[in-house]
Amino acid sequence: MRVLITGGAGFIGSHLADRFLAEGATVTVLDNLSTGRRHNIEHGLNSTQFRFVEGNVLDSRFVEQLVQEHDLVCHLAAVVGVDRVLADPLRAILHNVGGTEIALAWAHKYGRRVLFASTSEIYGKSSNVPFEEDDDRVLGSTQITRWAYSTGKALDEHLCLAYHAQGLPVSIVRYFNSYGPRLDPKGYGSVVGTFVAQAIANEPVTVHHDGQQTRCFSYIDDTVQGSVLAATATQALGQVFNIGSDTETTILGLAELVRRLTESEAELTFVPHCDAYGADFEDIPRRVPDVSKAERLLGFRAQVSLEEGLQKTIAWFRNYLPTQATTEGTD
């Protein structure tokens, strides 16, 4: 099988590439390295089964050529992370929606299968937990910038399903707070990355609000397993799946667990949302997936506990951060 992964130098994409390579596939990664990192994929560059192409998913003719050469397109390229969306919502909307439309259009023309990576942000600020895939979405005002990401991803899903109605073989996965090795040490897009980096450096661990908001954290191996099943199973076609753990953890509980596992002396610091993201920012008190559909149709259920996954993540950070510091010091 020939697999194209857009955004494949990113956190999830690079792990997905590793998995397909391990299963004997030929893998091409397309990434513009705006948030992805060459470091994430450089171990694969010597393989004859792996190719890295630096480019932009908005380059339609270039994407056409790549789609035509592959059997499966895993479309992960996107502007992600609250900070990035708030900083430049126009870029986030145009890149996320435009890139998806281009990838889907060419996949439809050439009859290629597609896996589309969506997000738990789809559910907005709904309080109807656990979230089922066909639940109503509850969003704030269009004047609240954070909802631009959710809305863009929802439009992407509508495009997927509309193309599916025209014959495109496509599946959609909604990721819930994936974490693990290769997280951005600066914490973009991941509270786990932020907490681990701060704790290892013995810097204050910054908890937003009172830390009682909850999330369900999914180790990267589970995220990849769910993605591969959704990308390859016949029964996944035309379907949307929550991919993640359904074990609920408070952000404060996460911070305390990270401090314990790192044996850090860092203090906890509580930061109001308005100081971190501005006066109009809206957070979600609880985000919990109903994973019964993925379990029923795909046989998927997350296996890695939060403590086990954090131990592996912390070990990677301890090895990576000194290397990163040395590299930055020689630039």
Descriptive account of the structure:
By secondary structure, this protein is of the alpha/beta class. Helices cover 42% and strands 16% of the residues. The chain has a domain at 2-182 and 218-246 and 284-304: Rossmann fold. It contains 11 helices and 13 strands. The strands form 4 sheets. The protein has a 7-stranded parallel β-sheet, sandwiched between helices. A two-stranded parallel ribbon has the order 7-10. Helix 4 packs parallel to helix 5, helix 6 crosses helix 11 and helix 8 (251-262) packs across helix 11. The chain is globular and about 55 Å long. 43% of the residues are buried.
Short recap of the structure:
This protein is 42% helix and 16% strand. The protein has helices at 11-22, 60-68, 82-87, 89-110, 147-165, 191-200, 220-232, 251-262, 273-277, 292-298, 306-329, and strands at residues 2-6, 26-31, 50-54, 72-75, 113-119, 170-175, 178-179, 205-208, 214-215, 218-219, 240-243, 249-250, 268-271.
Main attributes?
disordered C terminus; single chain; Rossmann fold; 331 residues; 7-stranded parallel sheet; 42% helix; 13 strands; alpha/beta; globular; two-stranded parallel sheet; 11 helices
